[in-house]
């Protein structure tokens, strides 16, 4: 198939999943055209079956904010017409599904129909979509898609509960590269970060408010108070980094915390981790948790959103109520101080991750593409 994929280029989950999906589809023999306003972060290698198209936005004095959705729709039309796309797969409802609908209507005037698949990832439904200013547009764009997927059962429920949606939604979860995300020997890195054999606690995110990095630091401080020699490794960057650094100084634990910044090969850090913390305030799937689990790292998480579908309480780690940091700290101490428990959780985490093997999940997308194309052709 000749497939168009539209995504945001950022380090967030939707951009990562869309880019990795494109790579695997290309490996399977499909031709993929990626459309975004910048080159996606994970699209770092040349591939003869993947083509990147940048959405260029011209600035005019008339517009305070450039009309990205319109520029995107126009570029979609160009792709559909000149690259002869078989299907357009947009990640995120706003504005991608809306722009795709406009592009499809333009192409219909020219006698060409290209089916649209929309994948819902999270904040397009749970945050942005709930804004009354966008609600009707979200509902319309989803219902006018030829096929809709969501990355978790939780997100599917949220969509139906908060919007008047008539369209069927198929759950296709996020996926993991088991070969890339597996524990490897990183002795040198471990010696640099924990020279005295301290336990290593890891958190990876984009440091947005919803990721609750200050909560990570509070949990870690409680771990230290319990007498566990440990280091906290924070990978990523974002708006809350300065707040997190200030909190470390207030708590007097700076010597135990390493801010690594954006670290592309995060599997290297996960390979030396003894525990992964993800106390997010909203998480429609929890890709960061899955990456840790694939590297045989037990996870302590909040019990909100799609996280319980990934991190199974008492099996791959533990899940606690959102604001119960004592609960998370107590479980963390238990895991870090009990080798047999840690070994069991680590083994279970890797086995759980295997259920999200990329080859298996991408086949679900391929089957869904064929189903949508077949329906659209009738």
Can you walk me through this structure?
Strand 4 (87-91), helix 3 and strand 5 form a beta-alpha-beta unit. This protein has two domains: 2-175 and 357-377, 3-Layer(aba) Sandwich (Rossmann fold); 187-356, Glycogen Phosphorylase B (Rossmann fold, 3-Layer(aba) Sandwich), CATH 3.40.50. It is an alpha/beta fold and 378 residues long. The strands form two sheets. It has a seven-stranded parallel beta sheet, sandwiched between helices. Strands 10-9-8-11-12-13 form a six-stranded parallel beta sheet, sandwiched between helices. The mean pLDDT is 93. Helices cover 44% and strands 16% of the residues.
Strand and helix map with partners:
Elements: E1 2-6, H1 13-27, E2 31-36, E3 50-54, H2 68-82, E4 87-91, H3 93-108, E5 116-120, H4 123-126, H5 135-143, E6 147-150, H6 153-162, E7 169-171, H7 187-193, E8 199-204, H8 213-225, E9 230-235, H9 241-251, E10 257-261, H10 266-270, E11 275-278, H11 287-294, E12 299-302, H12 307-310, E13 317-320, H13 325-337, H14 339-353, H15 358-377
Parallel strand pairs: 1-2, 1-4, 2-3, 4-5, 5-6, 6-7, 8-9, 8-11, 9-10, 11-12, 12-13
Helix pairs in contact: 2-3, 3-5, 8-9, 8-13, 11-14, 13-14
């Amino acid at each position: 198939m000749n497939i168009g994929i539209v995504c945001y280029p950022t380090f967030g989950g939707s951009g990562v999943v869309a880019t990795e999906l494109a790579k695997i589809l290309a490996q399977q023999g499909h031709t993929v055209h990626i459309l975004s306003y910048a080159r996606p972060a994970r699209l770092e290698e040349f591939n003869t079956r993947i083509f990147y198209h940048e959405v260029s936005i011209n600035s005019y004095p008339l517009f305070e904010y450039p009309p990205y959705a319109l520029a995107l729709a126009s570029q979609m039309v160009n792709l559909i017409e000149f690259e002869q796309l078989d299907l357009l797969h947009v990640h995120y409802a706003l504005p991608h599904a809306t722009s795709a609908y406009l592009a499809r209507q333009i192409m219909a005037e020219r006698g060409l129909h290209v089916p649209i698949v929309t994948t819902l990832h999270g904040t397009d439904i749970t945050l942005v979509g709930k804004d009354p200013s966008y609600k009707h547009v979200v509902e319309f764009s989803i219902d006018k898609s030829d096929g809709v997927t969501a990355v978790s059962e939780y997100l599917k429920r949220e969509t139906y509960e908060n919007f008047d949606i008539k369209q069927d939604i198929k759950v296709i979860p996020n996926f993991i590269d088991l070969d890339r995300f597996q524990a490897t020997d990183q002795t040198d890195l471990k010696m640099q970060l924990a020279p005295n054999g301290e336990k290593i606690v890891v958190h990876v995110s984009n440091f947005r408010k919803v990721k609750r990095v200050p909560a990570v630091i509070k949990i870690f401080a409680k771990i230290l108070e319990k007498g566990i020699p440990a280091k906290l490794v924070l990978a990523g960057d974002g708006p809350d980094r300065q707040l997190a650094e200030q909190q470390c100084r207030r708590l007097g634990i700076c010597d135990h915390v390493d801010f690594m910044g954006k670290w592309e090969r995060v599997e290297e850090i996960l390979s030396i981790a003894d525990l992964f913390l993800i106390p997010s305030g909203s998480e429609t799937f929890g890709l960061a948790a899955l990456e840790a689990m694939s590297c045989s790292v037990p996870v302590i998480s909040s019990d909100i959103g799609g996280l319980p579908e990934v991190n199974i309480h008492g099996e791959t780690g533990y899940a606690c109520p959102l604001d119960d940091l004592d609960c998370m700290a107590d479980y963390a101490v238990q895991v870090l101080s009990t080798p047999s428990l840690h070994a069991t959780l680590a083994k279970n985490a890797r086995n759980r991750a295997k259920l999200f093997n990329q080859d298996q999940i991408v086949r679900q997308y391929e089957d869904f593409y064929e189903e949508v194309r077949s329906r659209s052709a009738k």
